[in-house]
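Comment thread on ticket #2218

A.B. wrote:
> Attaching the input chain for the structure job we discussed in standup.
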Amino acid sequence: MFNIVYRPFYVDGYGVTYPMESTNCFYNMRLERRSYDLYITLCYYLPIWVAFLYNLIIITLVVRRILKHITDFTNKTQVFALFLYPTILFICWVIVILLQLSCSLAQFNNLIHNLFYGNTYRSFSATYLVCWMLCVIALLRYLRRQGSMAANQNIRKIYLKVTLGPKLANNQPKQLIHKNCEYYLINNNKLLSVISFFKEQKYKQYNIIEMSSSQDLVKCSFNPDDMGQLLYKENYHKWIKVQELIAKDPILQNNVADYGQSRDKLFEIYCKKAYKLHKLLNYSDEMIPGMVNSQFPETVVTVLHQTMFIPTIKYLGTEKQIEKWVPPSQNYEIVGCYAQTELGHGSDVQSLETTAVYDKNTEEFILNSPTISSTKWWIGDLGLTATHAVTHAQLFINGKHYGVQTFIVQVRDTHTHLPLKGIEVGDVGPKYGYNTKDNGYLRMNNVRIPREQMLMRYSKVSKAGEFIKAQNEKIGYATMMQVRTSIIHNTYVSLAQGLAIGVKYSHFRRQFKDKNGIERPIIDYQTQQDKLIPLIADCYAQGFGCLRIREILTENLKRITEKNDFSLMGDLHALLCCCKAVYTWNTHFGLDKIRQSLGGHGFLQSSGVVSIQTEFAPSCTYEGENTVLLLQTGRYLLKACNKAQKHQPINENVEYLYNIQQTLSQKATFTRAEQLLCPEIIRKLMRLHAAFYVNKMMLKMMEKAGEHGPKEAWNKHVASIAHTYYWTFKTFLDTLIKVQDENIRSVLSNLCCLYGLQRIIDWPIGYFEGGFLNGEQLEIILNAKEHIFTLLKPDLLGLVESFKFNDNALRSDLVDAKPYEKLLQSAKLSSVNNEEYQNKLRSLTRQLREMPKL
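C.D. wrote:
> Ran it. Output below, let me know if you need it in another format.
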């Protein structure tokens, strides 16, 4: 039959084999050829090929990402991380595989040679080179693991359950080790800083954001500090410092015991806060009032003294008047207010009825409130606080009317605080919110003031009674422009506050179990996302819009003071009107949506959102009723459209009015949701929408020349809103283009797209009426919106963390480390739950129970 002969052979450390008799050792080793092949394959070649295929897959995925985003790369570090690293890795592996194939052939030849001739051949150089290549590969993998060459910027979210120890004495930091994490804890619940995070360093390339409400560490694709500096610019550090000082001061920090206090008690509390703010923060700093207002659930007393009275004197007063009135105002020797609105007229300033008649014999103005409707009304800080008022009145000289001018009138004695002769002043009474704001009324009966108390930087009255008209009458609205800019900034701040509460609580609150029996955070539900995420896009858009408006306002004032150039006044006035109207509406309704997203807890004062909402609500009405402001912007758009048709120069904000008919002939061409991740496509679509409504308004006006009815007002209203949305989107896009940080730019791009898509979804009629969209494309827009939700969801906490509100500023139990315990604690502190009140209540409830039975 067959004789099976076993020939012993030796396998050395290099994988080289040769017959055993050539070594004169290991004669007892007996291996079949098949066993040798299996050994070599499993222990040597298979791991090499598996590792090679694994890295090849990684390289393929990274190259796909590069090709997908190649046009977005501006950061050289990211190009290095995403392209150079895979290239080096690929080259190393190719060298290794080629060498291994070469060695395999050499080993086969050696084996045949050894079987017949009994000697050995070893490839030392090739083997050493293979080892060095493997070391290089291992080093590269280690560097990538450390995050030096992060090829993958995936956003992840992890949860770490930390068991906290007993309360700490004297707020001293205590080190706590949990698994592989090392933290510093203070006050038993707040994470101060992360010393190390997973010794494996798998996630070092990400930024860690604290979420104290559930001790979760959330991964964010950008640095919230860098985003915060983009939002606040040069005021970033001052914004954080102001909050820290307020939170540490026992008088200024928010106290849950203040909830439910009577109006007179609250007024006393906030008078003390105003005094401490001025002492601690130099409240006369123009930026400070705007920063501190958002820190309290009620409005700080004398805020209008800083934001309206003093700026009016600075803008409209002569140098001599500024020198006389501003220093005592900043030192609170006098407290002022801005008395423009009357019972009968608010937005219609030109129809004010208060009169100021010049008496050239005494060189005085005589001010009167001739009718009930001429009573100054809603004047903030006037009811209880102000000693002086900047007052608007119709000027008459020798019986001739010279329009509305601005005067400084003393209303109370600076020592006794009693009203002066001819002055009738008081508070208008309880309101919807604004409990600490002493909105007042003022009537004047033959009140005489010196000629020098008419603000005369631009319009002047000589001693002889000669009136010198201002070059641009709108300069009288300079203070109003400043105030409207502050209101626009407040739309961003108030919405940001509400979102910080809503988003953080939505990550903590868990409702309804999944298939594994685990309750899910409510932010996982699309209905909750639809309430909150579009509002985050609105908030960022309004924030960047405000920054741009501040730049234009600064440029306008610079031109006026340095060059007497009023060319920007009309454009700025129209922009402020429409942005104030649209932004305040968005924030007002957005805050209510946030309150609803919190469920029943959102209706509590201790949720924090209620006070934000009630304090913000008047913004839709004061300093210009929104509908009236939109009509003013509508008139501006009509004038700009006429100029464009005549090929005259117009402001860049309305450049879309050139060649408007050619513009309106365009249509949307996108066919996939992915295309709508490009902001430029959405910008063009919103540009068409704005042009369509302005053109429609123009055509209606031409059809009914001279007629001014409700329909004409509605056309102006809608055209102004469409213009505002387009300008805001374009400003958002211009901002993100300038951002250098790729991660921040990527997130802002998604937010910008979401802002535009949400506007289209909310106002689709114009897009269909103009023929720019069809039903299928609207469905694509809805799908794109949902896709952006998935892209933004991991970054939501990072986006609200960028607003940089501390816990004292949010004043919400819902963002506490233990919100349910905090809510119960706040309830127990309510004034109706104290023992004294309960004793009084028992007698009343006993009477109710003892009522005669029917």
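A.B. wrote:
> Thanks. Noting for the ticket: The radius of gyration is 36 Å.
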